[in-house]
Amino acid sequence: MLPQKLLHPYHIVPSSELIAAAAELPYQPVAHMGVKFHAVPVEVQVLLPFREPLVAFFSPTPAVIHAGAVYLQCIMPFYFMFAVMFCLNNAMRGAGDSVFPMVDVILSLILVRVPAVYYLAERYGPDYMYYGCAVGWAVGLALSLGWYFSGRWKRHGSLADEGGEGL
User: Fold this and answer.
1) pLDDT in tens, 75-98
2) Whole-number Å distance between alpha carbons of 132 and 116
3) What pLDDT, on a 0 to 100 scale, did the predictor assign at position 30?
4) How many CA within 13 A on the CB side of residue 70?
């Protein structure tokens, strides 16, 4: 799945080292969130029209080309949800809260996505089963946003008080 790997969040968002280096500058770049999220629509607009040739690069089989092209068409418009969920979960992991991101991934990627894929394939056909990825990402993103903005993740690791109580 090289086309999907090209859209991995490491390629969508600047690395944490770049953001940390920017913090050392005499000015603060205030538009770094825009840099993170503008790449997804651009990649969607560029890669979606070329999905068949991109998949054909890896296999000449027409059935594989069709399945890969449908997969890219289904997931790419929703890939931003995975990118944001990935960044939020890793920010919380880096702050010391590793339990919630693990639960979030298990819930969204296994307990929600797998049944959604089966349901969509049974109800609408195999070409629509790939939307199960978007369903899982939507649930995972909602959980990540809720936990992130609640601030409870700050009670763990490096952001916790020395007395053991959270912020």
Assistant:
1) 988 988 998 899 999 988 888 888
2) 5
3) 38
4) 14
Q: Which of 132, 141, 103 has its CA nearest to residue 9?
A: 141
**How does DSSP assign the chain, residue by residue?**
-HHHHHTSHHHHS--HHHHHHHHTSSS--TTHHHHHHHHHHHHHHHHGGGHHHHHHTT---HHHHHHHHHHHHHHGGGHHHHHHHHHHHHHHHHTT--HHHHHHHHIIIIIIHHHHHHHHHHHH-GGGTTHHHHHHHHHHHHHHHHHHHHTGGGGSGGGS-TTS---
Pick the closest to residue 104 from 135, 144, 68 (CA basis): 144
Q: Tally Cβ neighbours within 10 Å of residue 32.
A: 13
How far apart CA 155 and CA 167 sit, in angstroms, is 6
Q: 26 pLDDT band (50/70/90 cuts)?
A: very low
Q: Within 13 A of 11's CA, how many CA atoms are on the CB side?
A: 11
Q: What is the largest CA-CA distance in the chain?
A: 63
Q: What is residue 121's predicted lDDT score, i.e. its pLDDT? A: 95
